[in-house]
Amino acid sequence: MIPIVLTGTIIPNDLKTTHSDWKIRRREYLDAIKYYKKFSKVYFLENSDYELSSDTEFASSERFQCFKFKASKQFKRGKGYQEFQMLDEFVKQKLNDDWFVKVTGRYIYENFDEIFSFILEDKCKYDLIIDAFIRPRIALTSLFYVKKNVYLQCFQKSYLEMNDSEGVYAEHVIYRALNKLCSYTFFSKLPILNAITGTRGLKITMNDCSVKSRIKNMQRILFLFLRVKQLLV
């Protein structure tokens, strides 16, 4: 079984966070946990001052476990720094599985069934599955699959390079780290996301029936056939 790791910050510790109502964020995390538990066991990582131990809705169960981390002192460096700082500690000290799928905690991918099926089918073929793009030189860190040993070898301490205030985002740093990898690819289908961004508070919706989405999926099919590792757009 491949666990799904959801990263969370119920009480934001980031100066640029617009979507900051902790009650709304708490409910969104609980909704995401319920959604992803349908596919596999879920680990929820949380790094704010919220008292998780006093909230019974976050109680551990057969398919769910919480891990509490201290709020980062480097909040000025942004969400990516804090998220991967927490993820590093979890993977190195807590994770007993050989691989995992990481999802930004409040994000619900409506076609996750297709995405997860692709991961299960090719988990041994690739060390990493992440949507990386050649032109903007970014890798989308809100969703990826990776083997534990590969994460520790290639991505551990990458957060030290991340600094949102200087425009050095997690997406840029992880993209650069791809040079250390040979066996990686992108998802076979465009991930259909339904969420509200933390930084700008805007709702993200993607329609898999749109012409643009169909074109992007055709590109994915072609590039997978040609064994191209990164996407254009």
3D architecture notes:
The chain has 233 residues and is an alpha/beta fold. It contains 6 helices and 10 strands, in the order E-H-E-E-H-E-E-H-E-E-H-H-E-E-E-H. The model has no long low-confidence stretch (mean pLDDT 92).
CATH homologous superfamily classification: Spore Coat Polysaccharide Biosynthesis Protein SpsA, Chain A
Radius of gyration: 17 Å
Helix content: 25-40%
| CATH architecture verdict | Alpha-Beta Complex
Compute the number of helices: 6
Mean pLDDT: 92
Unreliably modeled segments: none
Tally of extended strands? 10
Strand content: 15-25%
CATH-assigned fold name: Spore Coat Polysaccharide Biosynthesis Protein SpsA, Chain A
- Major sheet strand order: 3-2-1-4-7-6-8
How many structural units, i.e. domains? 1
Largest sheet properties: 7 strands, mixed
Spatial shape: globular
Overall SS class: alpha/beta
CATH class label: Alpha Beta
